[in-house]
């Protein structure tokens, strides 16, 4: 099973700043089957990015995804107040879906 | 609009079973897979498996294979997930989520979640 490790665990930033979240896989994964989600307290996760770099419907263009192989990145170009949340990466491989442990983006 | 509506919260004793439903609307039910993901209190997301709503076939990871059953009723566009032999570690919010077949588009819609508490 592929393990996804996200870093940092928590990042403290101010609105307007840039956030760079990392997700590293224990072995190479297909970019086609890589996604990012946002989750706010008490809510279900929301799909942000699929196929490593494609924004889901309705997702603002300040969110972007990149990467390949074992290293993937979610970038939020300018943090808005509503972006403070937990972010999860996800991959599919060998008939199994796995999630990273999450990165919390908190207000500094 | 696409909606996945889950059944309400449950409180169960250790050793019991729980069956959660996920009713889909706003799209062609059999054109999308349904996954189940759980989240223990303060923890991350854990994938529990999926059902092909058209064929009725399932893909359940080894960890849950002997305790989880997933079924669907195409007449009501509802998917069910039953978890047996409950233990305290199964206390979590359980989500259903929709996936376009092919694994390339992520889980694009999610249910609101069902809290399951396992306690004596």
Outline the structure in words.
The complex is a heterodimer of chains A (108) and B (120). Chain A is mostly beta strands and 108 residues long. Chain A contains no helices and ten strands. The mean pLDDT of chain A is 97. Chain B is mainly beta and 120 residues long. Chain B has no helices and eleven strands. In chain B, strand 5 and strand 6 form a beta hairpin. The mean pLDDT of chain B is 97. Classes of the chains: A mainly beta (108), B mainly beta (120). Chains A and B meet through strand 4, strand 5, strand 8 and strand 9 of A and strand 5 of B.
Secondary-structure class of chain B: mainly beta
Which regions of chain A contain 5 or more consecutive residues with pLDDT less than 50?
none
**Total E-strand runs of chain B:** 11
Indicate the mean pLDDT of chain A.
97
Largest sheet of chain B: 7 strands, mixed
> Helix tally of chain A?
0
Residue-averaged pLDDT of chain B? 97
Short description, anyone?
The complex is a heterodimer of chains A (108) and B (120). Chain A is mostly beta strands.
Task: For this entry, give a set of tags.
heterodimer; A: 108 residues; mainly beta; three-stranded antiparallel sheet; 0% helix; 58% strand; B: 120 residues; four-stranded antiparallel sheet; 11 strands
Write the topology of this structure.
The complex is a heterodimer of chains A (108) and B (120).
Chain A: E1 4-7, E2 10-13, E3 19-29, E4 34-39, E5 46-50, E6 54-55, E7 63-76, E8 86-93, E9 96-99, E10 103-107
Chain B: E1 3-6, E2 10-12, E3 18-25, E4 33-39, E5 46-51, E6 58-59, E7 68-73, E8 78-83, E9 92-99, E10 109-110, E11 114-118
Parallel strand pairs in B: 2-11
Antiparallel strand pairs in B: 1-3, 3-8, 4-5, 4-9, 5-6, 7-8, 9-10, 9-11
């Amino acid at each position: 099973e592929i393990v996804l490790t996200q870093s940092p665990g928590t990042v403290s930033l101010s609105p307007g700043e840039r956030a760079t979240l990392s997700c590293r896989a224990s072995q190479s994964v297909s970019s086609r089957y890589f996604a990012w989600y946002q989750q706010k307290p008490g809510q279900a996760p929301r799909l942000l990015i699929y196929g490593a770099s494609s924004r889901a419907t309705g997702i603002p263009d300040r969110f972007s995804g990149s990467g390949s192989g074992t290293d993937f990145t979610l970038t939020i170009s300018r943090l808005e107040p509503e972006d403070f949340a937990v972010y999860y990466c996800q991959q599919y491989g060998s008939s199994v879906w796995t999630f990273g442990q999450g990165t919390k983006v908190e207000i500094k | 609009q696409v909606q996945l509506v889950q059944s309400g919260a449950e409180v169960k004793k250790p050793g019991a079973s729980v069956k959660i439903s996920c009713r889909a609307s706003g799209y062609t039910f059999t054109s999308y897979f349904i996954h189940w993901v759980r989240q223990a209190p303060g923890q991350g997301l854990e994938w529990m498996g999926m059902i092909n709503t058209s064929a009725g076939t399932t893909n359940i990871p080894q960890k849950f294979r002997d305790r989880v059953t997933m079924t669907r009723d195409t007449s009501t566009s509802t998917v069910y997930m039953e978890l047996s032999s409950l233990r305290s570690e199964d206390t979590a919010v359980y989500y259903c989520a929709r996936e376009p077949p092919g694994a390339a588009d992520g889980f694009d819609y999610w249910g609101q979640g069902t809290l399951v508490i396992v306690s004596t």
